[in-house]
Target: Chaperone protein DnaJ
Amino acid sequence: MSDHYETLGVSRDASPEEIKKAYRKKARRLHPDVNPGTEAAEEFKRVSHAHDVLSDPEKRRVYDATGNENGTDTGFGGGFPGTGFGFQDIFDTFFQGAGGAGAGRRGPASRTRQGQDALINVRVSLRDAVFGTEKKITVDTAVVCPTCNGTCCQEGTQPETCEVCHGSGQVQRQVQSILGTVVTAAPCATCQGFGTVIKHPCHECYGEGRVRDRRPLTVKIPAGVSTGNRIRLSGQGEAGTAGGPNGDLYVELKVDPDPTFERQGDDLHARVRLPMTSAALGTTLTLETFDGERELAVEPGTQTGHTVTLHDLGATRLRGGGRGDLHVHLEVETPSGLDDEQRELLEQLARLRGEEQSTGTTLNSPAGSGGFFSRLRDRFTDL
Model:
């Protein structure tokens, strides 16, 4: 069975508000209406169940004590059903106060916790993906409160020792078990296990030590990236509570389609249309590439589908260095909308080449010099 705290991504001493925020964040991302799919649906169920247990004080107390919301300890051969008491409680009871293995393991929790990691999406052009670039973005995230600088308190004040637990962060409680009445320790509800209370919280961050804000950031995008690649920016995520360290920021890239070039791996592909006359006679084309203008030699008699390769003009290899190639695919255009003079010239060319129309008749061929069907007709006439 998965740990509910790990499922929500919070620490075991997380406050109810932190549990609620973590649940909402994951629920928005995993909800079936937003993220359809069996895997996301199962994860959504686990997150919802974890929230149901940890948001209920009594269920959470039993879960913390036994490792199971049903009141049975799953970590050491089970507990005592119906009592909410497990073997770990016995060990803590007998050894903690006596300076044994449990001594010093418990104590007031720290308010200072590391911030959450963050993920943002950034779009780049194909040219920027080929050569790399720097992108200026704005991040909506949690930053250290500028008023209290992460102390959580109003100026001139500080956290005060809890009057209930006297700074230990724990209170003792009696539990009935098969061994009789035993005394166990539980987090103090007054200070939530911190051992101190903030009686004068900062008016701007409400005692959290951080606030939401938008801050500019420059992201260096390496050459050769493609859609789906992620860049990790260490320490650029959300600020932690009470002055805790920042999490990490992950930048996920999306490469926009280019009107001329299509990327396949490290190679680029382009399609160029040229007139029938240029394909027949041969020519030199000028192609605008990401590296500037390049001349493209077209051999006489070029057919549709012929490919010319320009080496080292493709995308930069993300790992290993070097670049791919640029493949230019030629498409021969058949002329349309001919005027009388143009048609006459094409008919003359057809006569010279002995070519015929699709109807099977010759193009005003002289006697004895027609195409296949006229020659076949002449042979039957001779018979």
